[in-house]
Write a structure and sequence with these properties.
The chain is α/β, with parallel strands linked by helices. Among the domains are: 96 residues, Nucleic acid-binding proteins (OB fold (Dihydrolipoamide Acetyltransferase, E2P), Beta Barrel); 155 residues, Rossmann fold (3-Layer(aba) Sandwich), CATH 3.40.50.300; 157 residues, P-loop containing nucleotide triphosphate hydrolases (Rossmann fold). It has 21 helices and 20 strands. The protein has a seven-stranded parallel sheet with strand order 10-11-9-12-13-8-14, sandwiched between helices. α17 links the parallel β19 and β20. α6 crosses α20 and α18 packs antiparallel against α19.
Length: 677
């Protein structure tokens, strides 16, 4: 048996089990060894029956009697009941749909039974316990590794298969250098794998988790550092800082920069004043003023004689940005234009020609900016709003459109805990705007049930009577039988005939033509409508200061990040704003998530709660890109992150990396994932 041997070579793996293992990603012996437990049950302490209390217990018993019967209520359900004894007392054990146990137990044999001792079906019993033969006189108990299962592969099956091949863990290798293991007091990888599956103590598990988690972070952080070094080899436009440009822009807006805005703007200006490309991510909560910082950066670039491009995910946001840009830049002699797919062919051709000639200073648009045929004369700065990642290939594409590699600034209003940003965005320098402009009033958020609907409608109607406006967000565009979820179309028809018949209502969704969406948003901003019914198409960037009420239907269907983004559509002025989250769900995770929305308006805190609840591999959509394949790394451990960053930096500075082929292979794979190459 070898690491690359097919899993079907193992005893007990027939066609059905093989298919089930494949669903778990287990096709070879190595896959099996690297399939981590999801938890451990510590049954290393053996209890006597005359002392046990409800909870998880382990007992050494013989089986005095056993019987199988069918459930009176569910004929297909079989119930196996056994009477166990250890000499100090007796206990009933119960299993469901395991009739084969009737012929399994030997009355003279001693077994270890481990499971939940609880009050169920009107009596105390040991429910669904695991069991195994014990022949030792002074048996000390054991720790069970518990694995994620499929219908055809149980955790116990995985345990049995691992017992056949655990010795092969000695042949496993990973990318963490021996020197790093020694310096940070880590056990070697083969031992970590062996102990993670078959621990003799909880301290074994701790040591193994520490070793594997360190390697998970080391690979990601090292990849980020390598990408950072790659970018430093490129030549970029040197954009000098000119204070007069900042003063000129700020004179055209009616508010001052916050201290946080000043700090991040200065970091960006310093980056651009170098002949190596800036590669920075700007994080800021909704309404924190990222757009103004972006416009300052653009103005600095253009006044230095270079062009700038601002890329956004939606045409609605592109149109909003061009409105803000023209308002500030026109009187400064800076020419800005919109480039989106909805433009007529003749108009688009004219703009593309003007961009190539250098007549247009700043282009704002969607990914149409990267399309074939768009060339820049002197592109110095690219700002990507709400894209989260800007891949290596996209950078190269931009380089072909200009004389040199432009500076790149990525902006996101989806706050990410700093610890996570250091790992996922290791190739980026991170700036954070961690305060809101003065005068912003926190949004009053309430989770409401269907019974409260008329009260909420009455209150929103009162706000409209005072000249304010409201958003209502639904998860669907059209009605369906999708578990009672509300749709924009159905709610639009209902509300304009009933409770809001006296109000002006518009609807907005992704299937509308770009011009139609733009006109509706413009009319809503200009107060031609009282209520805008929409899908999450309004989630990012939509700015209507007069809108003070937000109703989110079926709010339990949205993640925390999406709900926080939606809530950011109100509370954008000095007026008091309100957010109502309709949900009748009683699922514990849903209740906890929605309660978090009630308790805090801090996007960074919400992001951390979301991360803790859902795990790093799922948050921010990273799982679909395979970025965070981390099982044991604790990204909230600042000391650990610091140690790993130090280890990775020392290793890359040693100049010996090319001697480690495993590390080079891993980095090349992660480069593609982390950069969405």
């Amino acid at each position: 048996m070898k690491l690359d041997s097919p899993i079907s070579n193992l005893k007990g793996v027939g066609p059905v089990v093989k298919t089930g293992l494949a669903k778990l990603g287990i096709n070879t012996v190595q896959d099996l060894l690297l399939y981590w437990p999801r938890r451990w049950d510590d049954f290393s302490t053996i209890s006597k029956l005359n002392t046990i209390k409800p909870g998880r217990v382990a007992v050494l018993c013989k089986v005095l009697a056993i019987d199988v019967r069918k459930s009176a209520r569910q004929p297909r359900l079989t119930i196996t009941e056994a009477i166990l004894s250890d000499g100090t007392g007796t206990i009933k054990a119960v299993w469901f749909n395991q009739p084969f146990l009737m012929n399994y137990f030997n009355k003279d044999q001693q077994y270890l039974f481990a499971g939940n001792f609880e009050f169920k079906n009107n009596y105390l019993s040991l429910n669904g316990p695991t069991y195994e033969i014990v022949n030792e006189d002074n048996y000390k108990g054991k720790i069970y590794s518990i694995y994620s299962e499929t219908s055809s592969v149980s955790s116990k099956t995985i345990q049995k298969l691992l017992s056949q091949v655990i010795h092969l863990s000695d042949e496993l290798k990973d990318s963490l250098p021996d020197s790093v293991e020694a310096e940070y007091g880590l056990i070697n990888f083969p031992r970590a794998v062996s102990q993670i599956h078959m621990p003799e103590s909880m301290s074994d598990i701790t040591a193994s988790e520490k070793r594997i988690g360190f390697a998970e972070l080391f690979e990601l952080i090292l990849t980020g550092l390598v990408l950072k070094e790659d970018i430093k080899t490129e030549i970029s436009a040197k954009i000098k800082f000119e204070k007069e440009v900042v003063d000129e822009v700020l004179n055209k807006v009616d508010f001052d920069l916050t201290d946080a805005q000043r700090k991040v703007a200065w970091q960006i200006f310093q980056d651009m004043d170098k002949d190596t490309p800036m590669n920075r991510m700007l994080e800021g909560d909704v309404g924190s003023g990222k757009t103004l910082v972006a416009l300052l950066s653009i103005a600095m670039c253009v006044k230095n004689g270079f062009q700038a491009a601002l890329m956004v995910p939606t045409e609605i946001l592109a149109r909003q940005h061009i409105f803000s840009a023209k308002k500030i830049f026109e009187s400064m002699g800076i020419k800005s234009e919109l480039l989106i797919s909805a433009l007529k062919a003749k108009e688009k051709k004219e703009i593309v020609a003007r961009v190539a000639s250098g007549d247009i200073d700043i282009v704002i648009g969607t990914h149409a900016l990267l399309s074939e045929g768009v060339e820049f004369k002197d592109l110095g700065l690219v700002i990507i709003d709400e894209q989260h990642r800007f891949g290596v290939n996209q950078r190269r594409e931009l380089k072909t459109k200009s004389k040199f590699m432009p500076h790149v600034l990525t902006m996101t209003a989806t706050p990410i805990p700093r610890s996570l940003a250091l790992v996922v965005y290791g190739d980026l320098d991170v700036s954070i705007i961690d305060e809101l402009p003065p005068g912003r009033v926190p949004v009053d958020t309430k989770v409401v049930k269907e019974i409260d609907r008329s009260t909420v409608y009455f209150f929103v109607d009162q706000l409209i009577s005072q000249g304010q406006q409201a958003f209502i967000v639904c998860p669907l565009i059209e009605a369906s039988d999708n578990m009672g979820m509300k749709s924009v179309q159905a709610e639009f028809d209902r509300l304009q005939k009933t409770v809001f018949a006296h109000r002006r209502i518009a609807m907005l969704h992704g299937r509308m033509k770009p011009e139609e969406k733009s006109d509706i948003m413009s009319d809503f901003r200009n107060k031609k409508y009282d209520i805008l019914l929409a899908t999450t198409v309004i989630e990012v960037g939509v700015d209507v200061p007069n809108a003070t009420a937000l109703i989110v239907e079926n709010s339990d269907r949205f993640g925390l990040a999406a709900l926080h983004q939606l809530r950011g559509r109100v509370g954008r002025s000095k007026l008091k704003s309100y957010c109502y989250l309709f949900s009748d769900s009683d699922k514990p995770n849903t209740v906890k998530r929605l309660q978090a929305m009630e308790k805090t308006t801090d996007g960074f805190r919400l992001a951390q709660i979301d991360l803790e609840m859902r795990g790093p591999g799922e948050i921010y959509g990273t799982s679909q890109h395979g970025i965070l394949d981390m099982r044991f790394a604790d990204i909230f451990d600042a000391k650990l992150l610091s140690s790993v960053k130090q280890a990775a930096t020392s290793f890359i500075n040693s100049g010996n990396m090319l001697n480690y082929t495993l590390i080079v292979d891993k980095i090349n794979k992660l480069k593609k994932l982390t950069s969405l190459d």
